[in-house]
Amino acid sequence: MSEFKYKQVIVLRVDLRMSKGKIAAQAGHAAVSAAEQARKHYSDWWKAWIEEGQCKIAVKAGSEQELLELELKAKKLKLPTALISDRGLTELPPGTLTCLGIGPAPSDQMDKITGELNLF
Amino acid sequence: MSEFKYKQVIVLRVDLRMSKGKIAAQAGHAAVSAAEQARKHYSDWWKAWIEEGQCKIAVKAGSEQELLELELKAKKLKLPTALISDRGLTELPPGTLTCLGIGPAPSDQMDKITGELNLF
């Protein structure tokens, strides 16, 4: 995916064993919320990402702890983030942290945080 | 989910047997693109949906044909839509239509189109 100058990464917990429907809804939530952060606070990145075709990559985290550490790293680099907690109406307890959206942001900055994570 | 006055529905093809990572990325794409349509053209719906917590539901379509018919129905009701085609860089042929985002829009209008579809 190196041709994309901007990307968004959605980090999803694999330890929760979410259903495909839950994955789709939670990933959608992370994508919209992180994109909104970018649109409000990094509008140049957001615009460039939209124009480039919204590159999105889904990667794995093994635990809530790992999700929180990634959020902290992204915030230190001042990248847009959105941590998603489930309402708990269906398959998970209320408040469960399911995934983290990071970016859109320049790919080289994104790779510092998520470059080593396995594809979901 | 009847407490939500606004919702977004992501319709994903089950006949493609997409991986979980593909599902997450494509659902994210549909969610962001349909939300952008709403933000630009139906900003009251978009705002109300964001404030309500962005209700999102993932449902199944059995074929490309079904996806296209749903898009047509949604367009006839003047609901925001985003039909997503895959770039074909990984597991699918280029241009494959993978999913459709509809809404955010008022739940009663959404239900006319997607109310009978099975959860993904």
Greatest contact pair?
A-B, 31 and 31 residues
Please give the largest β-sheet of chain A.
Answer: 4 strands, mixed
CATH topology of chain A: Bit1
Number of helices of chain A: 4
Q: Assembly state here? A: homodimer
Estimate what percentage of residues of chain A fall within beta strands: 15-25%
Choose one word for the global shape of chain A.
Answer: globular
**CATH architecture title of chain A:** 3-Layer(aba) Sandwich
CATH level-four homologous superfamily name of chain A? Bit1
Number of strands of chain A: 4
Q: Helix amount of chain A, in percent?
A: 40-55%
Which residue ranges of chain A are poorly predicted, with pLDDT under 50 across at least 5 consecutive positions?
none
Structural class, judged by helices and strands of chain A?
alpha+beta
Order of helices and strands of chain A: EHHEHEEH
What can you tell me about this protein's structure?
Two copies of one chain form a homodimer. In chain A, 44% of the residues lie in helices and 24% in strands. The longest helix of chain A has 22 residues, at 20-41. Chain A is built from four helices and four strands; from the N terminus they run E-H-H-E-H-E-E-H. A four-stranded mixed β-sheet of chain A has the order 2-1-4-3. In chain A, 52% of the residues are buried. The two termini of chain A are 15 Å apart. Chain A has a single domain (6-114), classed as 3-Layer(aba) Sandwich (Bit1), CATH 3.40.1490.10. With 120 residues, the first copy, chain A, is of the alpha+beta class.
